[in-house]
Specification:
mainly beta, ten-stranded antiparallel sheet, Jelly Rolls, eight-stranded antiparallel sheet, 339 residues, 11% helix
C-alpha cells in the first residue's frame, strides 16, 4: 500500500500544479446544470479565487458548499478543457493501482492458486526464522541436543546446515494428514564421506522408533539430480504409482525414483539431463509434501514429482537432514488437512 500512496501523492502533485495555491479558508461551490428535457446533466464546481469551472457528472439538483478540507481532492475533478481525457486516464491508473495493492495486502493461504493443495487449517509454523523450539537436534557422534561444532545454526531467518556431520533436526511432535511446505537452497561445501559427491539432504517424515541415523521413516529425497525421490528406511514401506511395493531393509533403504527421472551420476553439481526440475545452484526451491491418510505426494517447484499409497508408517515426526552437504532451509510450515 505504500507504493499506492506514493503514486497517488505524485499524481496529485502533477495535477495540482496547474491550479493556483488554495486559500486555507477558501470554499468550493457547486451548481447542478439542467440539460435538455429538464434532466440533470452535470455538476459545475468553482472556486471564488481564482475563477475556474470544473465539470463532473451529478445525479440530483442541488447547490452546496464545502470548506477547504475538500481542497486536496480538487485535482481529481476534471476541468472542461482538452486535458480532460488525460486526467481520466490518470484516475484509472490510480484506482487500478489501489485495487491491485489492496489485493496483494490480503493474507495469502498456503498453496494459493495450486489446485493440488487440499483444504487445510491454519499453519503450524515449524520454523519462523528465529525460534527453534519445535525441534530437537541429533548427531551421530554427539547424540540428542548436543551440537558443539554448530552443525545447525540459525541466521538471517534461515536454518544453515553445515553438513559436516551426519544428523538432523527433528520435530518434538508427531503429525498425520497434513500439507507441508518448505524452501531450500544449496550451499557450497561437501564433506566426507560424501566430499565431491552430489549434494545430499532430505526431509524425513512418518518417523517412528528410536533416534538414530537413520530412523524408520519415509523420505522426501533432496539430492542433486534426485530431488523428489522416495526413500523408505529401516522397515518403512510404500506402494509406488506403478503398483510395486517397496520396503526398506533393516538399517538400509529402498528407493522409488521421481517421475521422469533420467540417468544419474554421483558428482557435485549434477543436474538431470532428462529435464531438471530443481532450480540452478544457489536459488531457492519449494518442496511440498501432501499426506492424506496413507497416501503421499511429493511436489517440487509446483510440479508433481512422485506419489505413493499404503504408506507404512502413516504418521510420525519430521526431520531435516545433515548428510554431507551445506544446505539452507526456510519458511517451514505445516498445515493440518480438513476432514
Amino acid at each position: 500500500m505504500k507504493f499506492a500512496k506514493a503514486l497517488i501523492n505524485k499524481l496529485q502533485s502533477l495535477l495540482r500544479h496547474r491550479s493556483e495555491p488554495q486559500d486555507p479558508y477558501a470554499y468550493v461551490t457547486a451548481d447542478l446544470k439542467r440539460g435538455p428535457g429538464g434532466r440533470s446533466s452535470a455538476v459545475a464546481l468553482h472556486e471564488p479565487e481564482p475563477k475556474r469551472w470544473l465539470n463532473v457528472f451529478g445525479r440530483r439538483e442541488s447547490r452546496w458548499s464545502t470548506p477547504s478540507a475538500c481542497a486536496p481532492f480538487a485535482p481529481f475533478i476534471f476541468e472542461e478543457n482538452p486535458m480532460n481525457r488525460t486526467h481520466r486516464r490518470l484516475m484509472v491508473v490510480v484506482v487500478f493501482t489501489m485495487f491491485i495493492c489492496g489485493c496483494l495486502s490480503l493474507p495469502a493461504t498456503a498453496g494459493e492458486g495450486n489446485s493440488y493443495v487440499p483444504k487445510h487449517g491454519n499453519a503450524i509454523v515449524l520454523f519462523d526464522g528465529s525460534s527453534t523450539g519445535n525441534f530437537d537436534s541429533f548427531l551421530k557422534t554427539q547424540g540428542l541436543n548436543n551440537d558443539p561444532e554448530h552443525v545447525f545454526t540459525f541466521e538471517k531467518g534461515v536454518i544453515h546446515v553445515s553438513g559436516a556431520e551426519m544428523g538432523y533436526l527433528i520435530t518434538k511432535q508427531e503429525y498425520a494428514n497434513y500439507y507441508l511446505r518448505a524452501e531450500f537452497k544449496w550451499g557450497e561445501a561437501t564433506h566426507a564421506p560424501r566430499e565431491g559427491m552430489a549434494r545430499d539432504s532430505g526431509i524425513l517424515y512418518h518417523i517412528q522408533g528410536e533416534q538414530k541415523v537413520w530412523p524408520t521413516s519415509l523420505e522426501y529425497q533432496i539430492c542433486e539430480g534426485q530431488t523428489g525421490d522416495f526413500y523408505m528406511t529401516d522397515g518403512a514401506a510404500l506402494t509406488g504409482s506403478d503398483g510395486k511395493r517397496e520396503t526398506g531393509p533393516a538399517g538400509s533403504a529402498a528407493r522409488i525414483k521421481r517421475i521422469g527421472e533420467g540417468p544419474w551420476q554421483n558428482v557435485t553439481g549434477y543436474r538431470d539431463p532428462a529435464g531438471e526440475i530443481e532450480k540452478p545452484h544457489g536459488e531457492w526451491n519449494v518442496v511440498e509434501i501432501v499426506v492424506q491418510g496413507d497416501n503421499v505426494k511429493h511436489y517440487l517447484n509446483g510440479r508433481l514429482v512422485n506419489k505413493g499409497s499404503k504408506a507404512y508408517p502413516a504418521s510420525g515426526k519430521i526431520l531435516i537432514q545433515s548428510e554431507g552437504a551445506e544446505v539452507y532451509f526456510r519458511d517451514i510450515k505445516l498445515y493440518p488437512l480438513k476432514p
